[in-house]
Input
Amino acid sequence: MATDHIVKSFDTELQHLDNCIAQMGGLAETQLAEAMDALAKRDALAAERVVARDARIDALEHEVHERIVGLLALRQPMARDLRAVVAALRIATDLERIGDYAKNIAKRTLALTQAPPKSAVATIGRLGKLVQGMIKTVLDAYIDRDVDKAADVRLADQEVDQLHTSLFRELLTYMMEDPRNITSCTHLLFVAKNVERVGDHATNIAEAVHFVVRGQEPESRTKGDQSSVTVIDERGRTTR
Amino acid sequence: MNAPTFGPTSYHPTKGERTSLEIKDFNLWYGAAQALFDVAMDVQVGMVTALIGPSGCGKSTLLRSMNRMNDLIDNLRINGAIRLEGDDIYGPAIDVIGLRKRMGMVFQKPNPFPMSIAENVVYPLRVDGVTDRALLEQTVERSLKAAALWDEVKGRLKENALGLSGGQQQRLCIARAVAGDPEVLLMDEPCSALDPIATAKIEELIDELRGNYTIIIVTHNMQQAARVSQNTAFMYLGRLIEYGDTKRMFTNPIEARTQDYITGRFG
Output
């Protein structure tokens, strides 16, 4: 990304920062994938591994912050360099949050393995695949400084929001059918929400990529997630 | 060798109340060597405009063209126009001495005269033949206050100015430059010989003087340009490459050349 500075060590530092972000991104991607896998397979051991591994993302975020404070103090980056550094700060925060959501999914998986399996897990799996694809694309967009790829991610988030809304409705219906579903469906609701939030963070990262390349924030988009305003009455009818 | 060609100049300054200095298709030659190429910019009244660019890019030449300091150089040739509040400064009607009174200038190295602090300040009035003591005293106080030096020197106005520190000497030169009540202050790297504390004081002063004066500052220190100016002009090889709102120039410049220069990627 950042080449040709007269002061070569500045290039090196920006490169290191990029590498840190890429490493964090790779880790966050893996964490979500393995958390979703553990959920689908009801694999408590795998879920525990995900929980334990979250500390590594936190440590990397810490490193990114330290590097950025150093860069700002010692190099006073300007223009595109400045935007890259500010974006890295934002992206590190988003990736750390993604890690937290993966960890939370894994924790809930530990609880869910103790209840009977639910068919909604399959829908959550689809949601997870969609969001994993977003993370992968947005990390590529970041590495390649590719605004078009970043725009794809923002578009994909609308699909995630729609799927999440219908999943929300599905889970509410199960709970109304049989109160014994409430414990596991509540966990699944949170899992679905976590995955949906990961999609939002991927979208934030896409916006940061746009900011690095174009120097301004992309135009705002309409929010597709209707779950916050969804109500299902006692006869199973959805109202908004 | 042909001069390199550039794309269209990006031009998006923040507009002030009106234009103070209007530079129109200005070209300048030192003998056969052309130093400025079709420079066109409107300097906004009451704002600080920074001129940045690598050594030899023509920024000092442009600054010195504004008050005709270049007149003394042999074989100097110009075309195009520079207007101060509508007056063509290279026009036949202009009085060069009068013009320079309308534009105070501060140089790289402080250059106080070997006389008292007070006499340094009122020197422009002395040259004009002012003898009214009250007016002279008023001017000393007003100018030194404007230059944020009054409190430091009010007890020793009769002492030799050469006894002041470098930063104080530079502020004295600014006091002298504003004593004649100019419209424009031209500053050619006013802080390059000063330590960081004195530099900060001059920068604070520039910020205070803005509004009352139109200030044009040439600086090699990009952070300084970013800190003190509202508009920044980037020059390269005698051309104005980009001229715009300072914040935008330093966060999101349009021209690749500007980007390369301010991020330290030149050459």
Observations:
- The first strand of chain B starts at residue 10 and ends at 12.
